[in-house]
Amino acid sequence: MVELTVTQMGAAGDGIAPLPEGGSAFVSFTLPGERVAARVTGKDRAVMEGVLAASPDRVEPPCRHFTICGGCALQHWADAPYAEWKRGRLAEALSRAGYADPDVAPMVATPRAVRQRADLGLERLTDGRVEIGFHERGATHLVPMRECHVLLPSLVALLPALQDALRGLNALKRLGSAVINMLDTGPDILLRTDAPLTMADRKMLADFAGRAGIPRIAWAGKGAPAEVAAQVKPVRHLLSGITVSPPPGAFLQASAEGEAAIIAAVLAGLPKKMSPRARIADLYAGIGTLSFPLAARHVVQAYEGDPAAAEALRLAVNAAQASRVQPTRRDLVRQPLLPAELKNFATVVLDPPFAGAAEQVAQIARSALPHLIYVSCSPAALGRDAAMLREAGFGLVSATPVDQFLWSPHLESVVVFAR
Predict the structure, then answer these.
(1) What is the arrangement of strands in the sheet containing 395-403, beginning at the earlier edge strand?
(2) What DSSP line would sit under 140-163, residue for residue?
(3) Could you tell me which InterPro entries the record lists for this protein (predicted)?
């Protein structure tokens, strides 16, 4: 056992403390300035055994699963210093990219218990029961979910009935997952399991969907595309006034509040002077979360590589006769827009996956594009891509952090660049 003093927070939400013999260790569930008793478990890891001198910013975590569940890392930190730390993560990423003293706006907070999407683990126990929950921190075991202060209460309330129903699912032998999107028409469930779905499974899922008022339950095996296992009514979701039928497991913004904050920052980041005939490229458009609000201003060419998402966007555009959105299916990793194509746009809105958009940003750097709005869910990937933009002559216009992922180290941000 050693006594450690935490000096700063690491990128994953762990405290960092110097070790007596040199070097430093990451210590979970600690805060800057705290003195703790800890057990060193590796060359850069230690486990806190007790708080000897607590930070004044330490608060009581609201959830009984905290420290065990891997979903949250920072429930023990007061709101104001937590928000400033997250804002600092964006500032640090931009600074490392070469933007000295970046002007980062205050973090836009989202409330508790509003997250509309969950990716949960499934585990069949030796007695045949099925547990549903997030994985333990640093482990593969599940934490049986009894409460959650991040997810929508209606989503949490669905889990006991789903857990009971899945006990009879032949397709779940040992491990699986469940993606649940809370759409405007109700919960939309995608199950992934470790064995094929049987006819008895399909009947059971249809009966459960009817009883529980679940419009659709889809299923996918390992490496296979999703298919509808049971559907009792259409699935619909409204995006900026446009009705979309999302595919099973579709990517949605984590919360309606977070989505609204991102849209507001994107619209505010558009060039101040744009010709009425100017066009916008929306890259990684998904099912149209940003395309539709952008189309209220200008014509939008929406590019999406995922076949199911691209088709959902196309159908929504056709049904709404939203002619100012022009959807195009295109894999932007294998086939990024080239400089000759980018010259047709006044700005690009780029909302890539967690890994960023190195291939597309490289082409933007080579182009004459004057303006870019980058929506990021990874400060590290943003920093790497922003470094390419800075070298190509892009200046930083604005940076807005959005706390889509409450009590976690993950951060959404909207960053505007211009030459």
Answers:
(1) 108-109, 395-403, 412-418, 371-376, 347-350, 279-283, 299-304, 325-329
(2) SSEEE-S--SSB-HHHHHHHHHHH
(3) NA-bd_OB-fold, SAM-dependent_MTases_sf, TRAM_dom, U5_MeTrfase_fam
CA–CA separation, 188 vs 103, rounded Å? 40
Q: For tokens 């994107």, what's the residue?
A: 266
Structure tokens given for 178: 């469940």
Q: Where in the chain is the domain with CATH 3.40.50.150?
A: 81-111+239-418
- The CATH fold of domain 81-111+239-418: Rossmann fold (3.40.50)
8 is annotated as contributing to ligand binding: no
* Residue 374 assigned as binding residue: no
Give pLDDT < 70 ranges for the chain: none
Question: What CATH number was assigned to the domain covering residues 2-58?
Answer: 2.40.50.140
CATH 2.40.50.1070 location in the chain:
117-237
CA 174 to chain CA mean position, Å: 27
Per-residue pLDDT tens over the stretch 160-195: 999 999 999 999 999 999 999 999 999 999 999 999
Delimit the CATH 2.40.50.140 region(s) of the chain.
Answer: 2-58
Residue whose token pair is 């002559």? 393
Catalytic, 377? Answer yes
Q: Residue 101 and residue 99: Cα distance in Å, rounded? A: 6
Confirm or reject CATH 2.40.50.1070 for domain 117-237, answering yes or no: yes
CA distance 92 to 387: 12
